[in-house]
Amino acid sequence: MSFAKQHSKKYDAIVIGAGFSGLYMLHRLREAGFSARVYEAAWDIGGTWYFNRYPGARCDIESIYYNYTFSEELLNEWTWSSKYAEQHEILSYINFVADKLDLRKDIQLQTEVTSAKYNEKTQKWDIELENGSKVMTTYFIPAVGVLSASNIPNIKGIDHFQRELYHTGEWPHDKVDFKGKRVGVVGTGSSGIQAIPVIAQEAGHLTVFQRTPQYSSPAHNHSLDSETIEKTKENFSEIRQAMYASMHGVPSSARTRSTDQDSPEERQRTYEKAWQDGGLFSFLYTYSDIAFTPEANETVAQFIRSKINETVHDPETAKKLMPDFYYGTKRPILNTGYFETYNRENVSLIDLRSAPIEEITPNGLRTSNSEYDLDILVFATGFDALTGPLLKLNIQGKDGVTLNEKWAEGTQTYLGIATSGFPNMFMITGPQSPSVLSNMIVSIEQHVDWIVDCLAYLSEHNATIEADAEAEQMWAQQCKSIANMTLLSKTDSWYMGANIEGKPREFLAFAGGVGPYRQICDRVASKGYEGFTFL
Ligand code: FAD
């Protein structure tokens, strides 16, 4: 039987994933009159905020900005409790939105999409679900997230560990009981730095296994007072415009002043203020040259190192915690009591650079110079970011070419939204868009709005759209040149694919800023989708 005959259902659009992206996409598709279905592998909606329920999980963009901006009603009806919302509050917000917009009826949960194939004859996408059933769609929209494919390192013996093993990105729903236990945490990125202080309070002993020491500054989280909330709601139109035009999707920006225009004392005062203010981008916004010049960058780096030194009592431990890459070339990290945690009697820090992990044993972990008995092992080892979730989807485009084949040597997209050879496929916050360099909800909304406008155009013209290979090459070149103007591409980070063995080394996002990127996308659309071909 041909694939077409096996289909029981056809939709205008199929969306994969029910996180912030998929939910907003569903809402806009319905508003625009398209028939749409969302498939979500998890037991419930929420994406990132459904899965990442590890202790200490919270957002690091201020909650008043980390919400949808498209609806005044949603803005007015929801009130955040603290400056940086915890995971469960964000998940409640997502559920509130889904209920308010009556989204659930078009979402099929517990349904993993196992493949998506473009059929050149029908000019439709054939989508296969894990239960073997098949669905057909005109527009294929993977909203699978960029930090949703957990990275569990391939360490010898991992399958033989006989005690409790967790990854922060796939945290269980039942509370993990650390009380009195010997706990090991592998990884000190954003998730590790959030989880470690909380786990340390409960564990009998916590051993942190660190490969890369990180720059991190205090979040200074606090409850939000009613005045701040009122003011934000009243002024949201202006705030929204500032977010849309900004570098990172938040309504603030870097000063035009450079580090050499201030004396060392003045710089010290500026950095001290940034440290006291908290804020993900506070340090990057102090001086215009921090993201570009090694010497300027070193002044911030030194400031944060000196704070670590002041905070951590044991000089040997402090030394191990000193970061040595360019500040801001990995996602900045906010913390609540992270460095202070190393002053606790029940916490020890193992430097994996001097003694790498050799094996996970049935009862713990062995490095090149010691063995550790552990009751609970937590991997806070991040994600196969940006490309990982898409490449896991088994996507096949024209001429039978798979996305994995196409991107084997490096990512190729046009605007981070489309890729040539894959007509009518649209990515949300895909690689080579501002994505993880931004407040992602702003980037999600911008992509969804752009895509829905494009679908309306296609529907009106009865056309299929495909990115041009030349436009895509130029876009890749532009992304590369911008990243190379900054220090971003000089560090081995997950932005560069460096945390995953065998992944091509390339800077995976558009570093030119959310505002300029929006202008580029709008210009492409206003020129009749320049750089695309209609089939
Ligand atoms: P996701 O929320 O990742 O949702 C993707 C969904 O697709 C998932 O539910 C997944 O199950 C589903 N899916 C994937 N493959 C399939 C398949 N084959 N079949 C069916 N379903 C599938 N961003 C910020 O801007 N600020 C922050 O402070 C911030 N904090 C973060 C903290 C953590 C711990 C993490 C992991 C990420 C954070 N992010 C933050 C990024 C965050 O991922 C985005 O802000 C946003 O939640 C992404 O939404 P999304 O819908 O695009 O993707």
What does this structure look like?
With 535 residues, the chain is an alpha/beta fold. The protein is built from 17 helices and 19 strands. The protein has helices spanning 3-6, 20-31, 48-51, 72-77, 87-100, 190-202, 226-234, 236-245, 264-277, 294-311, 315-320, 338-341, 388-391, 403-406, 440-461, 469-485, 514-526; strands at residues 9-16, 36-39, 107-108, 113-119, 124-129, 134-142, 164-167, 182-186, 205-210, 216-218, 333-335, 347-351, 357-361, 364-367, 371-373, 376-379, 395-396, 465-467, 532-534. The strands form five sheets. A seven-stranded mixed β-sheet has the order 3-2-1-6-5-4-17. Strands 7-16-8-9-12 form a five-stranded parallel β-sheet, with helices on one face. It has a three-stranded antiparallel β-sheet with strand order 13-14-15, with no helix packed on it. α2 links the parallel β1 (9-16) and β2. α2 packs parallel to α15 and α15 packs parallel to α17. The radius of gyration is 23 Å and the shape is globular. The mean pLDDT is 97. Bound molecules: flavin-adenine dinucleotide (FAD).
Main pleated-sheet profile? 7 strands, mixed
Count of strand segments? 19
Rg calculated over all Cα atoms: 23 Å
Shape: globular
> How much of the sequence is in beta strands?
15-25%
How many DSSP helices? 17
> Which cofactor or ligand species appear?
flavin-adenine dinucleotide
Strand order of the largest sheet: 3-2-1-6-5-4-17
Distance between the termini: 27 Å
Quote the average pLDDT.
97
Q: Give helix % range.
A: 25-40%
Q: In terms of structural class, how would the helical and strand content be classed?
A: alpha/beta
- Low-pLDDT residue intervals, each spanning 5 or more residues: none
